[in-house]
């Protein structure tokens, strides 16, 4: 690759003063002004003229409509801030209440699981058989007491029909 060593000259005009800039690669260098600064800068306070003073006074003064509009804007901003704080407070309390309810739900689930496990361990089929046969006087059915039949329909059994023998 060839390196481009050419200088590009750019002239800009600001406040009646020409300034020359040279571009070398990607760097722009400000060299020097072609013409010296002919007009010294004067501060705003030293500018003569009655209109200038009147404009400054008008800009710095607050009139009644401006004051009313500013007051209304301030009240609106304060109202919005108060509303925002209220909504934020309600949101925070709702989040805390939700967390409290979730922890309560988790506790109830744990308690339910423990009661379910206790019931499952308490149900003993041998104990049920013993209570049914000894205390309640139940006996097993004999072979001739059991009636079997075949269903005629595949879907369901009608309970109001007679049982076939």
Please give the structural blueprint.
Layout: E1 8-14, E2 17-24, E3 27-33, H1 50-60, H2 64-122, H3 125-135
Antiparallel strand pairs: 1-2, 2-3
Number of strands: 3
Indicate the proportion of strand residues: 5-15%
Helix-and-strand structural type: alpha+beta
Q: Output the number of helix runs.
A: 3
Helix and strand sequence: EEEHHH
Uncertain stretches of 5 or more adjacent residues: 1-5
Strand order of the largest sheet: 1-2-3
| Distance between the ends | 108 Å
Radius of gyration: 49 Å
What is the mean pLDDT? 77
Major sheet attributes: 3 strands, antiparallel
Fraction of residues in H or I helices: 40-55%
Estimate the global geometry from the Cα principal axes: rod-shaped
Keywords: Coiled coil, Membrane, Transmembrane, Transmembrane helix
Organism: Lachnoanaerobaculum saburreum F0468
Protein name: Cell division protein FtsL
């Amino acid at each position: 690759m060839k390196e481009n060593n050419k200088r590009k000259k750019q002239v800009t005009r600001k406040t009646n003063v020409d300034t020359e800039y040279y571009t070398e690669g990607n760097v722009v260098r400000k060299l020097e002004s072609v013409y010296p600064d002919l007009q010294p800068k004067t501060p705003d306070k030293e500018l003569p003229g009655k209109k200038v003073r009147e404009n400054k006074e008008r800009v710095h003064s607050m009139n009644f409509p401006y004051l009313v509009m500013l007051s209304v804007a301030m009240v609106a901003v304060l109202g919005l801030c108060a509303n925002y704080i209220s909504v934020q407070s309600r949101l925070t309390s709702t989040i805390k209440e939700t967390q409290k309810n979730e922890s309560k739900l988790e506790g109830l689930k744990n308690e339910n699981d423990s009661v379910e496990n206790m019931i499952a361990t308490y149900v003993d089929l041998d104990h049920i058989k013993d209570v049914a046969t000894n205390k309640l006087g139940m006996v097993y059915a004999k072979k001739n007491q059991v009636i079997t039949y075949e269903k005629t329909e595949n879907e369901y059994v009608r309970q109001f029909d007679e049982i076939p023998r």
